[in-house]
Amino acid sequence: MLRALAPLALLALLAGCASDPTVYPSLAPRPVEKFGFAEPASPPPAPAKQDPALDRELAALTAKGSTAAQDFDRAATRAETLARAARGAKVGSDAWIAAQTAIADLDALRSSYGDTVGALDDLASKRAAALQPAYPALEQALTTARATAKAQTARIDALAGSLPGA
Hints:
By secondary structure, this protein is an all-alpha fold. The chain has helices at about 1-15, 50-85, 95-130, 135-160. The longest helix has about 35 residues, at about 95-130. The protein is elongated. The termini are far apart.
């Protein structure tokens, strides 16, 4: 019985090799490939709804930050005066110590402003964790607070760098 099937099996195998070797598949783009591979545009974000509770909290944090920034500016003006007086003084002199102390006070005031930035960051991260859309007033307050904190740091660094022995 196996001998009778052997010629049939051989014939089936040879038929597979009998195809035309000069015919190749087309390399032209298929219809689906003409659409491209770019991601579709995402829909515009939904507008944020007014949140009176968040607005009140933002107003309180902004007022607190504004007070802290004003305190910093007053102390920075005093520190600049003391730093100018200490420029020609030796390290460890009374003028130098007064300027260093004023700069340390500035660091403490910057830290109190940093609390405001941290509170705004917390509000933004809680909204993001809850998958809520960005709140424009919060984003603006956060951007302003970060810029003010960066400017305060630069001001302290400039004052500290202007003193002898820095």
